[in-house]
TrEMBL record:
It holds the Pfam family Xan_ur_permease. Belongs to the nucleobase:cation symporter-2 (NCS2) (TC 2.A.40) family. Azg-like subfamily. It is a multi-pass membrane protein. InterPro entries: Azg-like, NCS2. It comes from freshwater metagenome. This is Unannotated protein. The keyword Transmembrane applies. GO terms for molecular function: purine nucleobase transmembrane transporter activity.
Amino acid sequence: MLDSFFKITERGSTVAREIRGGVVTFFTMAYIVALNPLIIGLAKDGDGKFLGGGDAPNLAAVAAMTALMAGILTILMGVVGNYPLALATGLGLNTFVAVGIASKMSWADAMGLVVIEGLIITVLVLTGFRTAVFKAVPAQLKIAVSVGIGLFIALIGLVDAGFVRKTGSGPVPVTLGDNGTLVGWPIVVFAFGLFLMIILMVKKVKGALLIGIASATILAIAVESAFKIGPNFDGATGAVNPKGWGLNVPAVPGDIVGKPDFGLFGQFNLLGSFDRISLIAGILFIFTLLLSDFFDTVGTVTAIGYEADLIDKDGNIPNNDRILLVDSLAAVAGGAGSISSNTSYIESAAGVGEGARTGLASVVTGVLFLLTTFLAPLVAVIPYEAATPALVIVGFLMMTQIKNIDWNDYGIAIPSFLTIILMPFTYNISVGIGAGFVSHVVIRLVQGRRKEVHPLLFLVSILFMVYFLASPINAWIG
């Protein structure tokens, strides 16, 4: 039955290989259950509230919902799309939602925008328009967006770990550690985690990021037990300890297995954001989310298809429409679950490398994610310094795509450069994307190569110009 439904033999695989591939994919991307709570679970919205509307973060609830959605959507991809592709909350997208969107409204409003973006992508898939939008942006600018997000993620990891900190004064905004010096045991834990992940990746050990997070957390618990370091900021007294832990003070958890909290589901306000921000700003937020979802998915699906040898001589992917439909619905589900947009993961390539060729591998990965929902209490003991090395590594992996940009063509090179540097420098993903699009259009016009610019890109660039000039325009029109 399994062989017939998933076409296992037809694709040159076996049940055992599919199961093994599904397990490997899970271990290579299970880190998202720990990282997503650290990114969106600790950020405050425009009302000063944490995700869920509380005055204190609920990391276990975010972890449980992250695992639940990843499990359901990955199983759906396996059954409907029959493709060895796993889905979970998108790194980069969750950062943009936390830093760029939720900070300007409530969490419910921000998740409403995510739902809208997912619905739009779903419509575009059903109408066949998604391909047209994909062609509007030059391929190398898409690469620049991915690289820029990678640098942004890496910077966030370094800042959250305390490796990079604000200077507080002077012309240079950031510095190494505490006034140019690395201090405290937490930095040692960060360095240990980072180098362990690097070594495991060099040795091609599956699940390197997850092993690194777990090992660094164990070390952090031992260090805290021995030296009683405490937090770097005491909310009760206001005392600052530059040598303290940046997140949770690590300790052996009282409960390892617990009843998962799915209370975040349904906490979204579909149109509430437009009461807090302008229509243009809302459209640009949605477009930025849509753009990332679009190109991340198309690139991931294509890469997995080539690695699994599932693409035919004409470049067609089996069940392509079904795959894109499930991915689009994943964005809607992520917003409805209050955990940011869910998308396809390139880490699925690890499972393909182990032999996965069908959706059965995705079903296995999804089941493991569902089981993980009962381990959510473990997330509450992971300090920043143990988890943030993974952000640095993910930033590196995204950075490797930069070699595919033609640096001899100024019409591509300069926009790519602006896109890449402005994301981390401004702490804003949409600024980088907008600067890249606008500069690309302007340079191509100056070069007399207007025909190379898609009309849709002209429209988007105009929207971004309005976005950049919103303040003077508002002053002008009163």
